[in-house]
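From the methods appendix. Each design record in this collection lists the discretized structure first, followed by the designed amino acid sequence. Records were kept in a plain field format so they could be parsed without special tools. The example shown here is representative of the layout used throughout.

RECORD:
C-ALPHA CELLS (111 positions):
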C-alpha cells in the first residue's frame, strides 16, 4: 500500500518536529493533499491511525484539505483549472501543472 509508506514518512517528520518543539502529544494534524497526487485521503488516514499507535500522534485528529489542480499556461501566463482543450486564454497546449500534485503538512498542534 502506497499510502502506508507516505504516512510513515509524514509521521517521522511530525515526530521530529514535535520533539524539537517540545510537544509530547500531537492533537491535531492538518495536511494538504493535491487531487492529482494519486493519494487516497481515506487510505492515508487509515494508515496514519494504524502507524500512530504508541506514538506521539496517537489519537490525533487529522484534517485533510484537498487542493484542486491548477495549470499555468507557459505561453500567456494564464492560471486555470484542468483545461480540456488547451489553454482557455490562448489555446496553447504548453501547460504545466502548477498545483494539485502536492502533499504537505500544513500544521500540527499539541502539548
Ligand atoms: Zn495561454
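DESIGN:
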Amino acid at each position: 500500500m502506497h499510502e502506508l509508506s507516505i504516512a510513515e514518512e509524514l509521521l517521522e517528520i511530525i515526530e521530529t518536529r514535535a520533539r524539537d518543539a517540545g510537544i509530547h502529544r500531537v492533537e491535531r494534524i492538518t495536511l494538504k493533499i493535491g487531487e492529482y497526487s494519486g493519494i487516497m485521503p481515506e487510505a492515508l488516514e487509515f494508515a496514519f491511525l494504524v502507524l500512530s499507535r504508541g506514538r506521539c500522534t496517537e489519537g490525533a485528529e487529522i484534517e485533510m484539505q484537498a487542493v484542486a489542480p491548477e495549470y499555468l499556461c507557459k505561453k500567456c501566463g494564464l492560471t486555470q483549472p484542468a483545461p480540456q482543450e488547451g489553454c482557455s486564454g490562448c489555446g496553447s497546449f504548453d501547460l504545466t501543472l502548477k498545483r494539485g500534485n502536492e502533499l504537505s503538512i500544513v500544521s500540527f498542534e499539541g502539548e
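APPENDIX NOTE: Residues 2-21 form the longest helix (20 residues).
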